[in-house]
Amino acid sequence: MLFRRKKKNVPQAPASAPCDHRHLYRAPVKPGSLQAQMIREGGAPIQIQVCDMNLEGIGVELPSNVDPRLEKGEVVSLELRKDDGTWSIDTPARVEHLEPGAKGQRCGLGFLHLGSLYAQMEDSLGRFFNRRRHVRVRPEFGQDILVRLRQAGHKPRGLLHDLSQSGLCVALDLVSSASIKEGTSVQVALELPGVRGTLEGPTRIVSKRRLGLREFVSLAFEFDAPPSLLDYVERRAGEIAAFSAELMASQSD
What we know:
The protein is built from 5 helices and 13 strands. The chain is of the alpha+beta class. The chain folds into 2 domains: 1-19 and 136-253, predicted glycosyltransferase like domains (Thrombin, subunit H, Beta Barrel), CATH 2.40.10.220; 26-134, Thrombin, subunit H, CATH 2.40.10.220. Helix 1 packs across helix 5.
């Protein structure tokens, strides 16, 4: 199954400038549309500004006059409320990255209990979480999905790590990964369980991250995702949420 290349051209950042790829994964949030606070264990609530979010995590900015001395890996409690008070969400999250922001410290937080998060969701939250475009899902445990890449005569193969409407991540061995570079285009092809035909089209390499003897390569689609891919992502997200909810219920018994 071949897909047409997107007509809209995505401007590329200059080679000398650092490139922020978070827009590929999280939906921006209009300032003031959400009220949020973060609570460390044994600490007082800290009012924070929500910058972007999806079903896997959230980007926030802490006030410049607050120095909570957060550490990567630390678990905090988050409370999100709609500006008009119509709904709220409480969820634990883990600190994934820290960096200076425009008005204070930027902090990336990953949600820990997706099952609990799904249970608190309502239709009105859809525009903030945008499930179908931004949520990333992994294949079923023990299920290896082969991904075939092709670029300038090189044909590395790897295993699918996760997938969304906007891109995917592939685990490659170090030799295969060495032949492809960040920012370049590469053709991708794979077969998904329950999806007819081969998903194939152009992508752009967003980042490469080494972990042990493997390198995880993130790719952004440069074609319009077909409905079958969206259905697969939605189905896997539901399965993961159901499993998480069942696990939480069994642990509380």
